[in-house]
Amino acid sequence: MSVFRGSGVALVTPFKDGKVDYEAFGKLLDWHVSEGTDAIVVAGTSGEASTLIDEEQLETIAFAVGRIAKRLPVVAGVGSNETVHAIYLGKEAERLGADALLHVTPYYNKANRRGLIEHFKAAAAAVHIPVILYSVAGRTNMNIAPDVCAELAKIDNIVGIKEASGNIAQVAEIARATQGDFDIYSGNDDMIVPLLALGGKGVISVVANVAPKDTHDMVQKFLDGDIAGARKLQLDMLGLIDAMFYEVNPIPVKAALWLMGKIEYSYRLPLCEMEESNLEKLRKEMQAYGLI
């Protein structure tokens, strides 16, 4: 039940006048198809899902499904720190035509090992489409340990993980514990090639928002055996990747897309525009990379 191999973009949600800008959103979706992106992830962290009300979140998922029209897999971010809510969002996303779901660990209330496993089991049992787990302790203070991955990998439709711990040793342990039966996607753009070397299937990427072709090519080159070519792209992109995190994601990546003329410079509070000094550093890094 693998969802994709390659570069999945953790797509931003454009706003205009306080509402989702579907004109810009549609253009971004079409651009990613033309640039070689391998999957679209909507309503995730980069999509500011935590500031979307349920109706908006489901509308963005439905819009992406309709616009993509099966050209690429659409993965819907539906995670919640309340299991019944996560189940509701997942079932609705499946009904709307999403190809797979992305479920982040519960945040704020967190959970013990048993509670974490039961949360994901319940979310997966409620749907028939694949589920990708999302481990990002830097935001949630909840890690998905390798032994928990091994337990959850036994469930037919829990097919993989977006691993954003930044701990390559943990990635290796997950790969060992799951014996190749679990798809691992990098959640850190600066660790794509190292993760692929451990058997990973690709990346769910922030930087792919602004450099979709290069991010796709990096993964594809590695999968095709061009390790040197993949490594070169990874190293050449490091400055741009760092720039995407001058401030909390998705503030810099949305600013970058604005500088590229693709979206309005607009966020939902508590996120807001970049500090001017950081914006200038971002502009220089984008100019150096040739994006503007």
Detailed description of the structure:
The N and C termini lie far apart (39 Å). The relative contact order is 0.14. This protein has 292 residues and is α/β, with parallel strands linked by helices. The mean pLDDT is 97. The protein contains 13 helices and ten strands. The chain is globular, with a radius of gyration of 18 Å. α4 links the parallel β6 (100-104) and β7. α3 (83-95) runs parallel beside α4 (113-125) and α12 packs across α13 (276-289). An eight-stranded parallel beta barrel has the order 1-4-5-6-7-8-9-10, surrounded by five helices. It has one domain: Aldolase class I (TIM Barrel).
> Can you tell me the CATH architecture?
Alpha-Beta Barrel
Helix and strand element order: EEEHEHEHEHEHHEHEHEHHHHH
N-to-C span: 39 Å
Number of helical regions: 13
pLDDT averaged over residues? 97
Q: How many strand units?
A: 10
At the fourth level of CATH, the homologous superfamily is: Aldolase class I
- The spatial strand order of the largest sheet comes to 1-4-5-6-7-8-9-10
The portion of residues forming beta strands comes to 5-15%
Query: What coarse outline follows from CA principal-axis ratios?
Result: globular
Gyration radius (Cα, Å) is: 18 Å
Q: Which percent range fits the helix content?
A: 40-55%
List segments where confidence is low: pLDDT < 50 over at least 5 consecutive residues.
none
Task: Find the CATH topology.
Answer: TIM Barrel
Q: Supply the helix-strand structural class.
A: alpha/beta
* Largest sheet geometry: 8 strands, parallel, barrel
